[in-house]
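Handout, section B. The chain below has 218 residues.
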Amino acid sequence: MNRKSEIERNLDEVKEKISAVADHEVVLIAVTKSFPASDVEILSQLGIKDFGENRDAEGVEKSQVVAGTWHFQGQIQSNKLKSITSWASVIHSLDDLRHFQLIEKYAPHSLSIFLQVSLDGAHHRGGAGIKDLYSLATAIENSSKHSLLGIMAVPPLSVPTLSAYEQLQQIHMDFKKEFPGAPALSAGMSGDYEMAISHGATHVRIGSSILGSRSPQR
């Protein structure tokens, strides 16, 4: 089986599983971290328009080769933001007001932004607490340039996955009441995207289920 056929088979399977569980529109983001630009080109040929990267260097390289909506979903480093905002259209992992201030300073175009919320209070792994989440959301809503899409979370290993998604679903429902213009929820990866969708995820970030096991950049 050639590479395009392999990716197409996997992609069709993922789409079928999403359709089986979703009762709302779901954006499928193909995560291309550690895979070559040739795989991204295949995904584009198969109709995928949304691509996710965790690393700035890979995002820079691949976004120059393949047109689409590029999503940055890795942990943000201040010294990378000028570069990240040059190629990404969507940021999934904002959790610090100082980083948003840098986005306001550097971004050459409008960005759509998800705020990462922590589900276990371990903020060193990424994610804001509820109090900081709401103040950060207010700051973005007051921006004349950038738009708030909603919230993002990664279930922590220390919490059972179902419990984490039940917690996230409640956080999401409360957040939408306060910020009705930002109803999206970015959650779910290859191992749990069906559960994420059943708990309200509108954007899923899927890599290995489509592209296979992670491999070194080649």
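Note. The CA atoms of residues 63 and 87 lie 7 Å apart. Compare this with the example in section A.
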